[in-house]
Specification:
Length: about 450
């Protein structure tokens, strides 16, 4: 077989069957008794497939699927001058086409609409609204005609049931603006092996815009909480996909301590503009640090309950993680699960983009990224260009306010031209560090916070 054919095959094989591709390159375990050395024909094939020499190939762990082939890589642009009649490029991401949203967002599902923001599109300090990800569980409601008349209720275990309009929220309460991360509970799900159920997020189920609203706690104080109110239930007005008006699409809640956190907001503006319908406008909840599903869009009701909520998204394996590690791919024992609360630490590289090609002779790369850690802060971000053999500490900014993400920068030096992977790993304020691969497998894939990697080709 001609070498070029073989190279192409390995590239394609990595897309289709990573395990077989890996075995072809690194050799099967049974061949040599152990794996992990990339030499000879394997190294040649791998280098050709990634498009350059691999200066740190000797550090490359066996079984590693090169970032160059990872699923976040957009399909290659057709070569300049290629005729429009050329066959369509191999299947790649489907980009979003939605008014007010960037066409760089990647569609993960269209019924319901789900779209993520590729890491390199999260390069702004404050996420622009057109780049804020979208996660709908049901049908997208029609735009509200008169936003100030939008109303919602606070009921259940309260002294005084409240109905409030957006107009009243604006006039009766003090408004606050804070930059805070909204992150889907399933962010990073695609990094699990075997594949976990649900939308295959890479790291793009997150964004950090500026939200304006009133403190949920201020509104709850007006209603007056009864001592029996120990848990909340949040509802939005979007219809279930089935069209059954009696069914909630998703309805989740939190224990009272989290509910009364002063950072929870009832929001009507994002980045100084009215909250768009697609992101839950005119009025939504923002419960930062915990899974995004708590941040009810199109908010129409918050109920105080005398026990844990049992709405859609609260039971089974939904938004739950194993207490003790389980066998990946197993069905799982519900008794071994607890509700996922604070999101785990995550650091992403926002520049350069995965697959970046840099001029020959480039010796230094300026990296930019972001990191966040649920209820905690980010203590450290480290970056590596040699498959994790050595690490460089990044400069990490302080959050503007609690629940803001932390931007980071670092400069890395490269010895020669070739194929590199830049890895980033964050460590939270309690010392928890992102793992090399998605950690504790669970049926619905929560907590997939593997280190982020981008492929860079120099020369
Ligand atoms: N009413 C309602 N609220 C909702 C959802 C929904 O489908 N309906 N999706 C939730 C989920 S799972 C997430 S991650 C966030 C996403 O918010 P966004 O679409 O504005 O990014 O909204 C949450 N609030
Ligand atoms: Mo979500």
């Amino acid at each position: 077989m001609k070498d070029s054919t073989r190279e192409r095959l390995i590239d394609e094989l990595y897309q289709e069957d990573p395990e077989r591709a890996d075995a072809n390159v690194f050799g099967r375990k049974t061949d040599v008794g152990r794996r992990g050395f990339l030499g000879g024909a394997g190294l040649a094939a791998m280098s050709a497939a990634v498009g350059g020499a691999i200066p740190f190939a000797s550090n490359m762990p066996g079984g590693l699927i090169p970032a160059a082939f990872a699923q976040s890589t957009p399909p290659a642009a057709p070569p300049a001058g290629a005729s429009s009649a050329a066959p369509a490029p191999p299947k790649g991401p489907q980009y979003l086409n939605f008014p007010g949203k960037s066409d760089k967002l990647v569609v993960l599902g269209d019924r319901p609409l789900v779209a993520e923001t590729p890491e390199d599109q999260l390069d702004d300090d404050t996420t622009p609204t057109n780049k804020l990800f979208v996660r709908n569980n049901g049908q997208t409601p029609d735009e509200a005609k008169d936003p100030d008349k939008w109303s919602f209720e606070i009921d259940g275990e309260v002294n005084k049931k409240l109905t409030l309009t957006l107009g009243e929220l604006k006039s009766k309460y003090k408004s606050v603006t804070r930059r805070m991360v909204l992150e889907c509970g399933g962010n990073g799900r695609s990094f699990f092996t075997p594949q976990a159920r649900g939308n295959q997020w890479t790291n793009g189920g997150a964004g950090c815009p500026e939200w304006t609203g009133v403190r949920l706690a201020d509104v709850l104080k007006t209603a007056g909480l009864k001592p029996s109110g120990v848990f909340s239930a949040h509802y939005g007005s979007d219809q279930h996909l089935s069209g059954d008006a009696a069914k909630a699409t998703v309805s989740r809640g939190v224990p009272i301590k989290k509910l009364m956190d002063e950072n929870n907001l009832i929001v009507w503006q994002v980045n100084g503009e009215p909250l768009p319908n697609i992101n839950g406008g005119p009025v939504r909840l923002l419960v930062p640090g915990w899974p995004g599903s708590l941040s009810a869009k199109w908010l129409n009701r918050i109920t105080l309950r005398d026990k844990e909520h049992d709405g859609p998204g609260m039971t089974g394996f939904s938004y739950r993680v194993p207490i003790k590690p389980m066998v990946p791919g197993d069905k799982g024992d519900p008794k071994n699960f607890k509700i996922l609360e604070s999101m785990p630490v995550r650091s992403i590289i926002t520049s350069p983009a995965n697959g970046a090609k840099l001029a020959a002779g480039t010796k230094e790369i300026k990296l930019r990224g972001a990191a966040w850690a649920g209820d905690l802060t980010v203590q450290e971000v480290d970056v590596s260009t040699d498959f994790g053999a050595t690490w460089t500490r990044a400069k990490v900014s302080k959050p503007k306010n609690k629940y803001d993400w932390q931007r980071w920068t670092a400069i890395v030096r490269l010895p020669t031209d070739g194929y590199y992977e830049i890895w980033t790993r964050g460590t939270d304020s309690r010392g928890m560090m992102q793992p090399h691969i998605a950690g504790v497998w669970n049926p619905q894939g929560y907590g997939g916070n593997a280190m982020h990697r981008v492929a860079v080709l120099v020369g």
